[in-house]
Amino acid sequence: MTERIVVKIGSSSLTSDEGGLNRERIVFFSRELAALHEAGYQVLLVTSGAVAAGFRQIGYESRPKLIHEKQAAAAVGQALLMQAYQEAFASNGPHRGIGVAQILLTRADFSNRKRISNALMTVEELLRQRIIPIINENDTVATDELKFSDNDTLSALVANLVKAKHLLILTDTDGLYTEDPRFNPHAKRIERVEQISDDIMSFAGDSGSSVGTGGMRSKIEAARVAMRGGVPAFVGRVKESGDLSLAVHGTGKGTYFDTSLHNLPMKKQWLGFHSQPQGKIIVDDGAEAALLKRGKSLLPAGVRTIEGDFHPGDVVEVVNLQHQTLGRGVVNYSAWEVQAVAGLSTTEVRRRVEVARIEVIHRDEWVSLRD
Ligand SMILES: Nc1ncnc2c1ncn2[C@@H]1O[C@H](COP(=O)(O)OP(=O)(O)O)[C@@H](O)[C@H]1O
Ligand SMILES: N[C@@H](CCC(=O)OP(=O)(O)O)C(=O)O
């Protein structure tokens, strides 16, 4: 299969603090992306910048905070953003330039299997036709509680969906530092991350600009999602011509997040990232090791207790004794049944309740969310 690359560009790289698009940067990034396209990669772009591009046109003085104002700014800005990319790509590449297409997605689209498979089919066809899909959140319809709000997570979910070879998250800093380099000029850059430990997470701060939203924290969260989906990620800066290609080839100006995991099938992506858990199962250390290290199913013997009300077939979150999330799975028992058999041996369970399957969660219906 032709290698796929998902590139995410943040507002801070495309616009200024005062709002409005920086057309020179858009032309620059489209050249960088065109070079990958010409080299034979299938390129997908996840771009922010709609709100930042639109608010000045509407007459707001700074990036709006109220949801309806942000949505109005995005509605104006999204058209400007697409127009700018369309023009920039039209003058790139051989013949008639490179074609682009707009795709707007919400979190709700990802949790609906039919909608997301339709989106994937559209993307596949665009890529076959050598068109670059340009993706943003559908800000006009995304409701506050379900919003991605920054596009970092969206780009990771897209990378998992299309089983990308790389996810490149471009921003205004050349990677993750031990502290926000704006506040500590002596902070050290981290070159490679193999596991997102609490230490790594603690380095990351909020956004440095008034137009960006996620900051480094949301980029690391996004890298975690991509890594779990078997997609290695890069977070860094692309400033000079050729930088994007360097980033793809492992010598970019930024931080690389490696993964040895395989791509997650669509069903497990849904289970891990888009399902809505109905409750929690708290398991002991033995069950934690069985699930995470030995790829086993969850048996009643390893269950300590539960939270919430759920029924067979529901998705539940599994947490350890320290309440850290281990993963999610489809449960075979109702909440009261799990509570009744918690800690019991398989023989004892069979004597007490009648269940279709002895496993509380079968390993085929389970996805680990630990690195
Ligand atoms: N530990 C850190 N290392 C690097 N940058 C950091 C760190 N903590 C916070 N930041 C800030 O995150 C900013 C990038 O995030 P953001 O402004 O949301 O960008 P974008 O618009 O590209 O998504 C950087 O400009 C930087 O100031
Ligand atoms: N969908 C929004 C993205 C919001 C945003 O600022 O994201 P980011 O710059 O990636 O932190 C937009 O296009 O303005």
From TrEMBL:
Pathway: Amino-acid biosynthesis; L-proline biosynthesis; L-glutamate 5-semialdehyde from L-glutamate: step 1/2. Pfam families: AA_kinase (PF00696), PUA (PF01472). Its main location: cytoplasm. It is an enzyme of class 2 (transferase). It comes from the Bacteria. GO terms for molecular function: glutamate 5-kinase activity. The keyword Kinase applies. It is found in: Cytoplasm. Residues 279-354 form the PUA domain. Keywords: Amino-acid biosynthesis, ATP-binding, Cytoplasm, Kinase, Nucleotide-binding, Proline biosynthesis, Transferase. Substrate binds at residues 48, 139, 151. ATP binds at residues 8, 171-172, 213-219. Its EC number is 2.7.2.11. The keyword Cell membrane does not apply. It catalyses: L-glutamate + ATP = L-glutamyl 5-phosphate + ADP. Belongs to the glutamate 5-kinase family. PANTHER family: GLUTAMATE 5-KINASE, ISOPENTENYL PHOSPHATE KINASE. Catalyzes the transfer of a phosphate group to glutamate to form L-glutamate 5-phosphate. This is Glutamate 5-kinase.
